[in-house]
Write a structure and sequence with these properties.
single chain, 172 residues, alpha+beta, Immunoglobulin-like, 2 domains, 4-stranded antiparallel β-sheet, 2 helices, 9 strands, 21% helix
Length: 172
């Protein structure tokens, strides 16, 4: 089967196979362009916690390298003690483009755990837990649990493009 295309004074005739190949190529290019945009969004790469029991202060140090801390930043810091949220502090920008620290007044009992979650405004987050030494049976003191960073979803467009290409190849 052949198709005729007329745009203004230009016209051409192509076969259905050529038309499907061109449509597949255009879909692939569009999918690649749409998935390239979220590449700038990323989870923070590190988060460390330090608790000063004498002063009753928690220092949260976050590493989140960004080009513009006014538009790509850690939007909030959520602090929980033993699973109960005690503070959610909202931010409208990062103080620095790489590593920065916040200090919060916080009274914590021996044997408790402090959990901190820091989500990025563009997607993704990082979480750490600090165990305060104390009563028997409490976990050993750790500087922070291993990274549990969640990545922003890259989108469904590439999946749809791949499905289209597979269907197209199946028809051939």
């Amino acid at each position: 089967m052949r198709y005729s295309i007329k745009i203004g004074c230009l016209s051409c005739s192509i076969s259905s196979t050529s038309c499907m190949a061109a449509l597949g190529l255009v879909s692939l290019i569009v999918a690649l362009c749409l998935t390239a945009a979220p590449a700038g969004a990323h989870s923070p790469s590190d988060l460390s916690l330090a608790y000063n029991q004498t002063e009753g202060e928690l220092t949260v140090t976050i590493t989140h390298e960004v080009a513009d801390p006014a538009t790509h930043y850690i939007k909030e810091v959520q602090i929980s003690i033993d699973g109960k949220t005690v503070h959610t502090i909202l931010y409208a920008r990062q103080p620095f483009a790489t590593t920065f620290s916040y200090t919060y007044p916080l009274q914590v009992q021996a044997g408790s755990s402090i959990d901190v979650n820091a989500p990025c405004v563009l997607g993704g987050s990082i979480r750490r837990t600090l165990f305060i030494p104390g009563s028997a049976g409490s976990p050993p003191t750790k500087p922070g649990t291993p990274a549990s960073a969640t990545k922003a979803a890259s989108g469904i467009v590439p999946v749809l493009g791949l499905a289209f290409l597979l269907l197209w190849r199946r028809e051939r």
